[in-house]
Amino acid sequence: MFFKVLATDKQTKARRGELHLAGQIIPTPVFMPVGTQGTVKTLTPLQIKETGAEIILCNAYHLCLRPGAEIIKQLGGLHRFMGWKGAIITDSGGFQVFSLSKLTKISNNGVEFQSPIDGSKLLLTPEKVIKIQNDIGANIIMAFDECVPYPCEKDMASVAVERTLNWAARCLDSHNNEDQALFGIVQGSVFEELRIECAKHLEKMNFQGYAIGGLSVGEGSLLMNEVMDYTVEYLPPGKPRYLMGVGFPEDILHAVERGVDMFDCVIPTRNGRNGCAFTHLGKVKILNSRYKEDTGPLDEMCDCYTCKNFSRAYLRHLFVAKETLGLTLLSLHNIFYFQRLMQQIRDSIERGEFRSFKEQFFSAYKNN
Amino acid sequence: MFFKVLATDKQTKARRGELHLAGQIIPTPVFMPVGTQGTVKTLTPLQIKETGAEIILCNAYHLCLRPGAEIIKQLGGLHRFMGWKGAIITDSGGFQVFSLSKLTKISNNGVEFQSPIDGSKLLLTPEKVIKIQNDIGANIIMAFDECVPYPCEKDMASVAVERTLNWAARCLDSHNNEDQALFGIVQGSVFEELRIECAKHLEKMNFQGYAIGGLSVGEGSLLMNEVMDYTVEYLPPGKPRYLMGVGFPEDILHAVERGVDMFDCVIPTRNGRNGCAFTHLGKVKILNSRYKEDTGPLDEMCDCYTCKNFSRAYLRHLFVAKETLGLTLLSLHNIFYFQRLMQQIRDSIERGEFRSFKEQFFSAYKNN
């Protein structure tokens, strides 16, 4: 993996870059749709590709529970398993092991937990997490981190940072597949001192990229932006910066402004399945009866398959009639919307007009 | 609409024809995937087209209940509403009104029933059913018929035939859109005398095509074949013959042999959603643990998107993980399978080798 910054905005820290990865050049800032269980929910790989997405995020935690990392390895790795020819990043499972598992016991060695699928007792250590991600075979893999809930006492957050740094070093030590880039994850909750300490230490370890983890967990947009303000400064400018699990279009704009290059989030697909579509004017809740006879597309500015072929009235009918095609068509549109937003962001940075693009965006987009 | 028989098999009654419809030439025997509520479940119109399907069946009963025939008319008709550029046939709702509705009251005038969606009291008459289908705007529409359950006393079946004939005449009288072909439906349960009486009377009314209704309702394959044996004889050779709601690959082969040209069935999509795939060797139940590490496609003889891109192991994973993409990929494969089967049937009739094709089919296909 190779990362190159092509242009930096003059008024903000926004940057336009390129991620050279697995024979592809992925322009940044980039949004990565989420395919937790080895499938971006309701969409075929062909449909995902047609949204413009070139890299997706899958989850090592979910995939090691089911179908199992070794099975994926035997079947030729995740790209082949799921039929996705683009790039893949896997999350290490740090976030999931704390948020989804029961009876979690954490020690410096690792995390013991019960599988939510079959109740079996499992142990994840930094070494095991790297082995799992090596087996799965994504192009970018993540260090194993301890993700604290929000709000969190500083003492607890501090212990988690120490452990995250210790585990980060062990991940680096046990990772020996140079075809896979390994990213470190900055923790520290909303404490400036902890975030900076974590970022500084990780920077010295020389990861190939740096993620900001433990955000978008309930702290709110303002606090999230603050954390980015002081954290990004301590991340090396020549490496990609990845804000994990974010987010809404407005969050992405705020983060790009602060120098973040990569994003992933379930929002376009999850909201799509719940009947919520993103448009340049804001969200459309398709079950609203006002769309019953609406012949217009979800978004008049959109060129996606859904908008080119189907009216709001038809999409509403699909949701009212509980037809799966509705989930597919809204997910497809939403991912396309996010990809187009990132394209516009990249174009505006290249033109040196990111700030005015952001203002235009907010003047049209009503966050209802 | 115009129908032409191109070739007739010498050893059987199988025929190879063409349905000229809405600017398209649809080769017969043809299988029509079912899109009950204005969507072939889990598939986009683009995906349906890629299976080779050129005509689909939708249901006037379901569409008049939701979203309503007048709304579909206002929105430009069903083709535009659902974004399907191929041909459409609508079933009149005769079958559904008896099988799905509650508190059904039948009289010579029509059928009174309670909407299963909102409990409202509704009345369907032959005239209303034609009006609904005119509004929906399919290329082929069906007469309103009385469909009796199986088994059924001959007296009751006889009354239903009389009513079906009376309603057929009223449907013809009230239909005045020459862009839509109207088909009559032969009823009569499993009684030779009634089927023949019904077929003879309908033949005189000069419909543009003839359907055999009320089969595949529990009478079994042998009895169904018997009914076809004596019914098809009384249908005019120059008009298309449509066996409604059928069926499994083996049923289709038996019916083609008896001179049937058109088929529709939910089997490829419903079975697909239940994890059952059709292959040239028989059915594959994808949840079976034997496929856990199976790198092969569903069917080695198949060129569909699913078989070209995904292993049985991945498809099984999708079903185990309850991922919607599994439903889509198996539905897609199954419809493709049915389209390919019809193509093989047509080719074999052209070559005068239908019977040997049928034998080959059964020697490979294990009905497990």
UniProtKB/TrEMBL annotation, chains A, B:
Pfam families per record: TGT
Example of a GO MF term: metal ion binding
UniProt keywords, alphabetically: Glycosyltransferase, Metal-binding, Queuosine biosynthesis, Transferase, tRNA processing, Zinc
SUPFAM superfamilies found in the cross-reference section: tRNA-guanine transglycosylase
An annotated GO BP: tRNA queuosine(34) biosynthetic process
Domain of life: Bacteria
Record pathway: tRNA modification; tRNA-queuosine biosynthesis
Active-site residues, Swiss-Prot/TrEMBL: D91, D264
InterPro entries per record: ArchSynthase1/Queuine_TRR (IPR050076), TGT (IPR004803), TGT-like_sf (IPR036511), tRNA_ribo_trans-like (IPR002616)
Residue ranges, annotated region (RNA binding): 245-251, 269-273
Residues binding substrate: D91, S92, G93, G94, F95, D145, Q187, G214
Keyword hit for Metal-binding: yes
Cofactor: record remark: Binds 1 zinc ion per subunit.
Every tRNA-guanine(15) transglycosylase-like domain range: 12-366
Cofactor (UniProt): Zn(2+)
Record EC number: 2.4.2.29
UniProt binding sites for Zn(2+): C302, C304, C307, H333
Catalysed reactions listed for this entry: 7-aminomethyl-7-carbaguanine + guanosine(34) in tRNA = 7-aminomethyl-7-carbaguanosine(34) in tRNA + guanine
One of the record's GO cellular component terms: cytosol
Protein task: Catalyzes the base-exchange of a guanine (G) residue with the queuine precursor 7-aminomethyl-7-deazaguanine (PreQ1) at position 34 (anticodon wobble position) in tRNAs with GU(N) anticodons (tRNA-Asp, -Asn, -His and -Tyr). Catalysis occurs through a double-displacement mechanism. The nucleophile active site attacks the C1' of nucleotide 34 to detach the guanine base from the RNA, forming a covalent enzyme-RNA intermediate. The proton acceptor active site deprotonates the incoming PreQ1, allowing a nucleophilic attack on the C1' of the ribose to form the product.
Subunit (UniProt): Homodimer. Within each dimer, one monomer is responsible for RNA recognition and catalysis, while the other monomer binds to the replacement base PreQ1.
UniProt-listed NCBIfam families: Q_tRNA_tgt (TIGR00430), tgt_general (TIGR00449)
Similarity-based family: Belongs to the queuine tRNA-ribosyltransferase family.
Name assigned to this protein: Queuine tRNA-ribosyltransferase
Organism of derivation: Kuenenia stuttgartiensis
